[in-house]
Design a protein that fits this description.
By secondary structure, this protein is an alpha/beta fold. Helix content is about 40%, strand content about 10%. Bound molecules: zinc ion.
Length: about 425
């Protein structure tokens, strides 16, 4: 999401399982005291799985003065839901770190400003990940996730929320690919030059002509198309036009909660028929409480990296006070599980992933930050899902979609175009 950053609430702990962690045995367990809810065997199972989240907005915090991605934080302490220590605590092996750019005027100046911002965000992500070479590394192919995991490291894919910064120059997609981007969505909360937004007035009845070219270029470069935030019509057109399956990095079911950011069952089924994946999110499961006070706080949070430590502390305090009397989402983990189970029922176990919208507005009671992720596995286990099912949900399905995009790419790993167009000849 965004424009609606985080939630608050206390750090949710998880059980530090008594058995040695098979997959990440080398990593320090920093899990705090165990809550009663997490079943120990499920916690051990969760640690065995390869896990990823498809929408981590944490890069917004990467540039903060006095703050390090490598330290242990709490949402209550500084409004952040993801850090390396909690990736260990919640056994989150990796995910897509987002280059999010707010929409602005569809003008040359607007595009130029947004491009400068997006490049800066990409640089910041690269520098932050590079700062912890023994703990996490950039991943650009599906197989990198497995390779890094075997090496005892977390993996960081990079994604782009909102292609607005590309302006009308689709050649910039190749630049962002070189910068590591492997997943991108055309649009955010405002209709832009590429597509209608799910939450704005339609202008194109789906994709614009440039948006159709954007789809073709995404396919050519082997990038996964993210349809979260796109209007229904834009979703339909991307589904038909794309040569590779779509991913919705953070969306839900309209049947569970009627909101345009969520997908209706018919579209979820068609997504699955085309091989795609919808990653279950923690947002839009209930009414959003967003008044002037919340909007003002979000406005500051967007630019938290520009605040002094004292100003950051003030913002944290003000946000905590508002959360206490008027939480952004007055909901809990039960609502998330209802949504997740509905998605699985409709799409099938091969077509659902996880995308909490952490640090982008996500988080519910009982699911306050990524340290709580093992509780999802525990509940799915209790609902009867096998380890193989859970592996699909936590990463297998998304990696399959990535591999499909990689296989369809008409460029080499370095981004160089292939000599001939013989590989695809799509144009469809
Ligand atoms: Zn979003």
């Amino acid at each position: 999401m965004k424009a609606l950053p985080p939630l608050l609430f206390v750090l949710s702990a998880l059980t530090a399982c008594g058995t040695p962690a098979p997959r990440h045995g080398g990593k320090a367990s920093v899990a705090p005291a165990a809550p009663a809810a997490t079943d120990e065997s499920a916690a051990a199972l969760h640690r065995r799985l390869l896990t990823l989240d498809t929408h981590l907005d944490t890069p917004m915090h990467f540039g903060r003065a006095g703050w390090s991605f490598g330290d242990t934080h709490t949402y209550a302490g500084d409004l952040v839901q993801v850090d390396l220590a909690r990736m260990d605590a919640g056994a989150l092996d990796g995910g897509f770190f987002v280059i999010y750019t707010a929409s602005g005027p569809l003008t040359a100046q607007g595009y130029a400003d947004a491009l400068a911002f997006a490049r800066g965000r990409a640089d910041r992500i690269a520098a932050t990940i590079a700062g912890f070479p023994t703990r996490i590394a950039l991943a650009t192919r599906a197989d990198d996730a497995l390779r890094l995991d075997r090496a005892g490291k977390r993996f960081a894919f990079v994604s782009m929320e909102n292609s607005y910064p590309l302006g009308e120059d689709l050649g910039l997609l190749a630049e962002f690919r070189r910068r590591g981007v492997r997943l991108a969505g055309p649009v955010h909360t405002k209709t832009n030059q590429f597509a209608d937004s799910a939450t704005d007035e339609p202008r194109w009845n789906g994709l614009s002509p440039l948006g159709r070219d954007w789809v073709r270029e995404m396919n050519r470069l082997g990038l996964v198309i993210d349809a979260s935030h796109a209007s229904d019509a834009a979703f339909d057109q991307m589904l038909e036009l794309s040569r590779t399956p779509l991913l919705l990095s953070h969306s839900g079911s309209r049947e569970v909660w009627n909101h345009p950011r969520n997908l209706d069952d018919a579209r979820i089924r068609r997504l699955a028929e085309h091989g795609g994946v919808i990653s279950a999110t923690t947002v839009y499961l209930t009414t959003m409480n967003i008044g002037p006070q919340r909007e003002a706080l979000f406005g500051q949070l967007e630019h938290i990296a520009d605040l002094s430590p004292a100003q950051q502390a003030e913002l944290t305090e003000a946000t905590r006070a508002l959360d206490a009397k008027e939480p952004l989402w007055d909901s809990n983990i039960d609502a998330f599980m209802r949504s997740l189970l509905h998605l699985i029922e409709v799409a099938g176990i091969d077509h659902v992933g996880m995308g909490g919208d952490w640090d982008g507005g996500g988080g519910l009671r009982g699911l306050e930050d990524i340290a709580a992720l093992p509780e999802i596995t525990a509940r799915l286990r209790a609902a009867g899902f096998s380890e193989a099912d859970l592996q699909k949900l936590w990463s297998g399905n998304v990696l399959r979609v990535m591999r499909a995009a990689e296989a369809a790419a008409q460029v080499g790993d370095d981004g160089a175009a292939e000599a001939t167009a013989s590989k695809g000849g799509d144009g469809a």
